[in-house]
Amino acid sequence: MRTWTPQKIRALKGARRFATVTCYDATSAALIEALGPEALPLVLVGDSLGMTMQGRADTLAVTLDEMVYHTRCVARALRTPFLLADLPFGSYQTGDDDGFRAALRLVKEGGADGVKIEGGARVVPLTRRLVEAGIPVCGHLGLTPQSCLAMGGFKVQGRDPAAAERLLADARHLEAAGCFALVAEGIPAALGAAMAKALAIPVIGIGAGAGTDGQILVWQDLLGLTPGRVPKFVRRFATLGDAAAEALRAYDAAVRDASFPAPEESYT
Fold first, then answer.
1. What is the pLDDT of residue 228?
2. Which letter, b or e, does each residue of 104-136 get, where b requires 16 or more Cβ atoms within 10 Å of its Cβ?
3. Over the stretch 28-63, which tens digit does the pLDDT of each residue have?
4. Rounded Cα gap, residues 21 and 5, in angstroms
5. What are the residues whose beta carbons fall under 8 Å from the beta carbon of 48, sequence distance 6 or more?
6. What secondary structure letter does DSSP report for 155?
7. What is the helix (H) or strand (E) element at residue 172, kind and residue range?
8. What is the pTM assigned to this prediction?
9. Is 185 a known active-site residue?
10. Residue tagged active-site, from 118, 185, 246, 264
């Protein structure tokens, strides 16, 4: 069992704000682990890997097998943060039995500590069933990427009062069903703050303003590895993409002029 648990994460509510991040491979997980036990309480293997790792335009094509594979890779190197994995599109929309089996695979085969599910009242029965079976669940409301077709793209949600009230109601339903935390994505800052105030569980924001209990960003986005434009809510905390390009150029030049490998990099 990893050091961080749902109980410890819930206890952060009102005590301190916390950062979380997505992760998709063992190398990245090892870097997170090296930060120490207090840095990142939770790590998410997101179905955003469809965009970050596979180069797709959305998350819809990501399979359960792929989620299990990437979760297993992260689990091998992660010892401290709670490991959360997304239930991918199509793994639970076909019925709660399918969703239950998918969650079991992520835990048993992938090594996840819990699962994240997108949706409001419609996923309450599955959420309750998983919690009763001993699988921690994190909810996800607002701009839910698996609903991008129905939403007409990646658009901010909850801007009018009626929509905001529906999201708040959904949040309360998910909390009552047993969610230990909730991700709020792509909603107005005022609604993010109101959601955090209304719930006794931590609300983790991504594009939901500074009033939430925690924040989550995509690994490639925050490290400056994502080429081109990024969403408005992203801050690049480094420019590793530029550093990587420079390293590749230096490597190419060293091979061309025969300065690599040097004698000390060669066997006798």
1. 86
2. ebbbebbbbbbbbbbbbeebbebbbbbbeeebb
3. 999 999 999 999 999 999 999 999 999 999 999 999
4. 16
5. 22, 59, 86, 145, 218
6. -
7. helix 161-177
8. 0.96
9. yes
10. 185
